Amino acid sequence: MTFAQLAKVLLAQACEEHDPDHKFILRYERELPRHGDDPRDRSAAEDPMRAGEARVIERAEHIVDRLTQKHPVFNSAFAALRIKIPVTLLIGCALVGGFLADPIGPTGHINLLNFPLLTLLLWNAVAYIGLLYNMVVPRPSRDRSQPGLPGLVEWLLGLVVKGRLSRLRSDRAQSPDEVQWIAASLASYAAHLLQSGRDLLITHARSLLHAAAAALAIGVMAGLYLRGFSFLYKAGWDSTFMEAEGVHMFLSFLFAPASWLLRIPMPSVEAIAELRGAAMANAAVWIHFWAMTAVLFIVLPRTVLAVTAWFRKTRLAADVHMPSNEPYFQRLLNPYRGKGLFVEVLAYSHRVKEEDRLMTFLSDAFGVLADIHVGSSVQYGDRHPHFPADPDRGLCAAVMFNVAQAPEETHSEFLEELKATIRGRGRPNMLLVLLDCEAYAQIDHERRLKERCQAWMTLVKACGLQALKYRDPSSPPDGELRVLPDCLWPGDFRGAQ
User: Fold this and answer.
1) What is the rounded CA–CA span in Å between residue 201 and residue 247?
2) Burial bucket for residue 241 (CB in 10 Å: 0-12, 13-18, 19+)
3) Is residue 496 one of the residues assigned to a domain?
4) Is the same domain home to 298 and 346?
């Protein structure tokens, strides 16, 4: 899926979610025309998920085509969210800015210990340390809300997108309800697009920033050399805490790679001592050292990082993933999901009521193609039943507890036994813990339900699991499907079959 296709899919999602009564997008407008002998039906049998995603994309394009014909404002929204960054202008500004920034000043005296290029080196060193930290520290352990480049990019893009959308105007002939629907759909669309394209946009921003940093250093060095033809630069140094030996050691370490590549030996300690105080010596050799050091530690690394980020951005743009875990897409992909998955429901010490509703929920969660079986209840204190050994199918053991019962150590032992079984079977086998809230939902006892759910959640968490509250009256629409991926242990392997 390309980013342009994702944009259409997300626009269709936003418009449909804000029109649950089919008031503005009629039912027939949401359905694709059927053809007698469709070759995609044969491909669906071979790779259902790929065929399902292609069907969702085609359906979204069909809906968006109708929307743009009826409401031209949606065409304007596509143009408003098509953010084009003037790459050449950005790099040119960095290059010119570096050239115009005179790091020496009108005096023409270079302080070897207070040279602005040293600040540039330190700034880039901090940037490299930050990049290394991001590579070493796993992403799930970092808080994505912390300030940094991702947060800054999202904030700036959010401002740009909201500003552009706020300037769009609907047709005056439209009803107030229709205008409100369009505004809500566009706001939701922008939020979903920024969230889904987060990695792509941040990678693009990183590429541009790396290129701009390299251009800035090139501009500074070009300015130094061009001014050196017209002005005489002299070098010296002074320090409260360092003597000539320390300065020589520091400069020898800093300029060692440049000295070796340029085949220019470092001045001796005596020569360094003579430079103390007023700048007297010609600064040409030191400018060469600084320029080569900047090339080695700023220009080359930043160029490599910029090219790497650019190629990654190109890959991401060509292979954007659909947010298939969202309830909207789960329902659209439902006929194509679940192949090769066996779901066994274990009702622990109670009988499942409204089995059809549970089957509907599990079908929405795992797909129509999943083999869902609601077995007989597991008696209190019994071990779990034997699961069929089928290497061609994954297993999801869905154990259901009744929150009307008090959680006990016996329940913990049952969960630990199930965990050991699932762990022994390996991927893509999963464990799901459901807390059936139906008993309290019927008597409308909110406080008691909350206390009992908290007790069960604590017990399940102590086993290293996360429970899903089933039929919780306080849960928002589609809340169960939204939290389901986080409740699957040891991971969400629904797409691995």
Assistant:
1) 44
2) exposed
3) no
4) no
Q: Quick one: which of 83, 85, 71 has its CA closest to 14?
A: 71
Residue-range definition of the domain harbouring residue 351: 337-487
Asked, for residue 94, whether it belongs to a domain, the answer is yes
Instruction: Indicate the pTM of the whole model.
Output: 0.72
**Of all helices (H) and strands (E), which one includes residue 84?**
none
**Domains of the chain: total:** 2
Q: Are residues 330 and 407 in the same domain?
A: no
Question: Tens digit of pLDDT per residue, the chain (497 long)?
Answer: 888 889 899 999 999 999 989 898 988 888 877 655 555 555 555 678 888 899 999 999 999 998 888 888 787 776 666 666 678 888 999 999 988 887 776 677 888 887 778 889 999 999 999 889 888 876 554 444 444 556 665 566 666 656 655 555 555 556 788 888 988 888 888 888 888 888 888 888 889 999 999 999 999 999 989 988 888 888 888 888 889 999 999 999 999 999 999 999 999 999 899 888 876 788 899 999 999 999 999 999 999 999 999 999 989 888 888 888 888 998 898 888 888 899 999 999 988 888 888 999 999 999 999 999 988 889 999 988 888 888 888 999 999 999 989 999 999 999 999 999 999 888 789 999 999 987 666 655 778 888 889 999 999 999 999 999 998 888 887 888 889 999 999 988 876 65
d(CA 475, CA 477): 7
